[in-house]
Amino acid sequence: MSKLTDSVKNAFKTKGPDPADIRKRISEQEAKIASLVEQHADASVAWTSGTGPIAAMHSLDADLAAARAELRGLQAAVVRIEEKEAAAQKASRERIYAAQLGACKHHLNDRDKAGEKLTAALELVDVAYNELLASSDRALAACPIGQKIPLGAMLGLGEIKHAIEREMFRLMGDPEIGGKRTFPGAQSHDMKALNLPSTIEPLPVLLKRASEMVIATLKGGKPPAPTASPAPAVAATATVDPPVAAAPAANLSDELERQTLATGPKMDARFYTPQKARLS
Question: Which tens digit of pLDDT belongs to each residue from 218-233?
Fold first, then answer.
């Protein structure tokens, strides 16, 4: 039994005579009156027939009057006690209602504050998420010409979203069957970790390992071979036109995009969608 149920029952208890005991006395008094009525009738018959004294009838009259007066008193007492009990119960219900209303208001205020905290946290998440995407795009664009971004680099949008959903499940997944309290958008993407969020590897560890793998792979690659043949030897007496400088690119982003389209990075189309680098 809960503490609230106990408090409600205790609140409804009133001091004084128990109405049940009084009702028992009322029943006994009604039975007594019925017996006196029969005795009074017998005494009346005896008196009218001359076999009994009138005094007996008068005595029974007094006994009946006293019994009926006592019955009325008991009945009035029950009514009054029940009125007081009803008033006490009403007051107790009002006090309990006020306490519950205050508790509900308190918890709603806490809920509102939690909502503010959640919004502030999501704003920080949005900033970090966009930084992660921008850095990934820049890393793709800065890949050395002629080299390939290896699979598992976690630079593609799909891979990033997949990893973030798993990280959300690791931090905010409900391990209970059904996961009713799992944070919206959080997914394990692995039946083995469906009810074991703590078994999922943290996102920073995954990203760090992927970054180290990319750098190790690119360091092990060979620089691209020259695409132009060496200029033929020129006689000492020949006239050589001065070299013409190539037109500069509009900006570094456009140059990197041009190089990417011409010679790399060569990425598996299943995982990556090249995007224009956001460089300043």
Answer: 988 655 554 444 444 3
Q: Which residues contact 259 (CB under 8 A, 6 or more apart)?
A: 145
Distance CA 221, CA 67 (A): 117
Measured N-to-C along each axis, helices 157-172 and 54-141 cross at an angle, to the nearest 10 degrees, of 150
Closest-CA residue to 85 (of 4, 17, 7, 3):
17
- Cα→Cα distances 187→51, 121, 123, 169, 174, Å: 104, 19, 21, 5, 10
Q: Is 152 exposed, middle or buried (0-12, 13-18, 19+ CB in 10 A)?
A: middle
Give the C-alpha separation, 125 to 53, whole Å. Answer: 107
Contact criterion met (CB below 8 Å) for 230 and 114: no
Residue range 157-186, pLDDT digits in tens = 999 999 999 999 999 988 887 778 888 998
Give the residue from 21, 44, 35 showing the smallest Cα distance to 67: 35
The count of other CB atoms within 10 Å of the CB of residue 42 is: 14
